[in-house]
TrEMBL record:
<keyword id="KW-0067">ATP-binding</keyword>
<dbReference type="Pfam" id="PF00005">
    <property type="entry name" value="ABC_tran"/>
</dbReference>
<feature type="domain" description="ABC transporter">
    <location>
        <begin position="2"/>
        <end position="238"/>
    </location>
</feature>
<keyword id="KW-0813">Transport</keyword>
<dbReference type="InterPro" id="IPR003439">
    <property type="entry name" value="ABC_transporter-like_ATP-bd"/>
</dbReference>
<dbReference type="InterPro" id="IPR027417">
    <property type="entry name" value="P-loop_NTPase"/>
</dbReference>
<dbReference type="GO" id="GO:0005524">
    <property type="term" value="F:ATP binding"/>
</dbReference>
<dbReference type="InterPro" id="IPR017871">
    <property type="entry name" value="ABC_transporter-like_CS"/>
</dbReference>
<keyword id="KW-0547">Nucleotide-binding</keyword>
<dbReference type="InterPro" id="IPR003593">
    <property type="entry name" value="AAA+_ATPase"/>
</dbReference>
<protein>
    <submittedName>
        <fullName>Iron-dicitrate ABC transporter ATP-binding protein</fullName>
    </submittedName>
</protein>
<dbReference type="GO" id="GO:0016887">
    <property type="term" value="F:ATP hydrolysis activity"/>
</dbReference>
Length: 278
């Protein structure tokens, strides 16, 4: 379980997050949404221990993140960043094996490769057939599945995803999100994902948490959180929300951006659905 309490963070005089409280229960798939620059990726990096908050705490299963070493954090959570630094000539199998580092350490990685775990991760994410291929030769959708395989090989109970559908076409966006949900179900993972498309968040997540003005503006099940009010106050657009019976999720039709003629788009009071048990 992830517990965030009173989290504050900023760059210089600019405050990005101002008193964030958030709990993600075991086995949940929670989507973080909001406009660009609202602090979604920053919050994810704070939960991963990659940034240090001004105030507040992050706890993983009750343990203060600040008390854990980097390897201990990596045993508890895996992070799928928006991009990986390029390594010329690196193959899919070589990258996925790097997921074993938190468990084996630098000396263990020098020994026999932990093929069983890496191979299983590649099978689960559908990339085993391309294990010998160089990463630079893969398409965007293929690379994203390989990065998921890397995270799965880490065998951490918590998975943090920073815009896993960025730069992908619609088909590959749906494939990646469906794969994330299958992995959550089959591996009993807790997933917190930054998502750009509100419709995707409504369809694939158990809960949606919207950020605005450095705070949580809405938190709850998609059917209760995704409203016309949310579109206006958080995203600054006028739109309509209908319920899609085919996938039991709300769907947004966006009409036009709000401007001075329609009134400013500012975050209103937080909207909360029913409490979700950890």
């Amino acid at each position: 379980m992830i517990t965030v309490s009173g989290l504050e963070f900023g760059y210089g005089d600019r405050t990005v997050l101002d008193g964030i409280d958030l709990t993600v229960g075991h086995g949940e798939l929670v989507a973080l949404v909001g406009v660009n620059g609202c602090g979604k990726s920053t919050l994810l990096r704070l939960i991963a221990g990659l940034l240090t908050p001004r105030r507040g705490t992050v706890r993983l299963d009750g343990t203060d993140l600040a008390s854990l070493s980097r390897r201990e954090v990596a045993r508890r959570l895996a992070v799928l960043h928006q991009a990986l630094a390029p390594v010329p000539g690196l193959t899919v199998r070589q990258l996925v094996r790097q997921g074993r580092y938190p468990h084996r350490g630098p000396l263990g990685m020098l020994g026999e490769p932990d093929d069983g775990v890496a191979e299983e991760a590649m099978e689960l994410t559908g990339v085993a057939h391309m294990a010998g291929r160089v990463l630079d030769t893969l398409s965007g959708g293929e690379r994203q599945r390989v990065r998921l395989a890397l995270a799965v090989a880490q065998r951490s109970p918590i998975l943090l995803l920073d815009e896993p559908t960025a730069h992908l076409d619609v088909r590959h966006q749906l494939e990646v999100l469906a794969l994330v949900r299958r992995l959550r179900d089959s591996r009993d993972l807790t997933v917190l994902a930054v998502l750009h498309e509100l419709d995707h968040a409504a369809r694939f997540a158990d809960r949606i948490v919207a950020l605005a003005g450095g705070r949580v503006a809405a938190d709850g099940p998609p059917r209760e959180v995704v409203t016309e009010e949310l579109l206006a106050t958080v995203f600054g657009v006028r739109g309509r929300v209908v319920h899609d019976e085919r996938n039991d999720a709300p769907h947004c039709f966006l009409d036009h951006p709000l401007d001075a003629a329609h009134g400013p788009a500012v975050a209103g009071p937080a909207v909360h659905g029913p409490a979700v048990s950890p």
